[in-house]
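Discussion board: Methods & Data

I've been asked by a reviewer to show the raw model output for two of the constructs in my manuscript, not just the figures. I'm not sure how much to include, so I'm pasting the format here to get opinions. Each protein appears as its amino acid sequence followed by a line of discrete structure tokens. Is this the kind of thing reviewers expect to see in a supplement, or should I convert it first? Here is construct A:
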Amino acid sequence: MKPILGALVLVPLMEAIALAQAPTADAKEGGLYLEGGIGFGVASMATPADNKDAFDSIPVFGAGFGGQFGITEQISVFSKFGIAKGLSDDPDQLGIGMTFDGAYKLMEKKGDVPAMSVYAGLGFIHLDIDPDSSLGIRDDSATGFVFEMGWQADIGSSESWSLQPFAQIQLVAGKRPFKGYNGILQVQTGAKVLFKIADQLYLEPSITFTGGNFQDSVMFGIGIQLRL
């Protein structure tokens, strides 16, 4: 069962591209939205074959960056980049990911009416696994394509703050080097709150819940968004 270990540790590392969702659900024509942040959380995952417990929990640290540009009042494009580290030597884990998405605004924000957007895109994730030598498992790495689609809203009638709930599905398909598992599907949901702290500058705390094939996780983040 040891080869399965490599497959099971893949899923928490997808937090690398979950830290930054679409910068905003209410992108304006010609508007540029830049954001970056860090996050820390816990992932519950299947344990190695020699562990008597069915599941194990490991801390996960990550950082994410994103940028969005409004082409029209309804259509925008955005990209996000992230890196995540599973803080464990059973095995040591590192993930790097990037996606490129297009978004369509279904509803425009007007007064108490929230904005609502849907998006979809493609990207990649690179996974590097470095297990403890005592486990008898070699180091390994892989790069796979990511498909994602999601929904995001912008709630709040004031420019001083807004609540942006989101939900998305991510799928990583393709050959894995670990032989035990060839695809990853996960669902993410959460919210971020934007507080205006200066002209065109917002503080951005967030929380993201993830459920996948072999794990569940929660990630708390804090970031900054600049609107130009």
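Construct B, same format:
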Amino acid sequence: MSRRLLAPGQTIGSYSLRFEAPEETRVPDEPVVSRLDEAEFDSLEEVDAVVRTLRRTGIQYGLMVVAMLLAVPVLALEAPWWFARSVWGGLTLNFITVAAALNVAFLVIALVHNRVANRSEDEMLGRLDDDLEWDDV
């Protein structure tokens, strides 16, 4: 069984091979203008400064989390009213703090750290504004 390749424009029976796009789908010859044409690169010093800043803020917020975690057992040992006295429906302050308040506090710390880190990185590296929409490009 032999195969035969056909050149563009040749016909097989009543079928012809045309490799041209119709006029309505052709790409215009004029270039597309974009506001993001220029590539922008950050220097190693700028990136290093951003990494040091983000590391410092990460350590600060991490120490806040560790302090909150350590405060619960310290209060349980040092303050009997914290661990022994029921406050609401038989629940102690210690239980309410561990079950709900710490989770909410950790979520708030994470959201604040995310916002601070993103804003400081954007300011230090001079990124595009958030109001630039991708459909404008």
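Answer (T.O., handling editor elsewhere):
This is acceptable in a supplement if you add a one-line summary per construct. For B, something like: The helical segments are 44-78, 80-84, 93-125.
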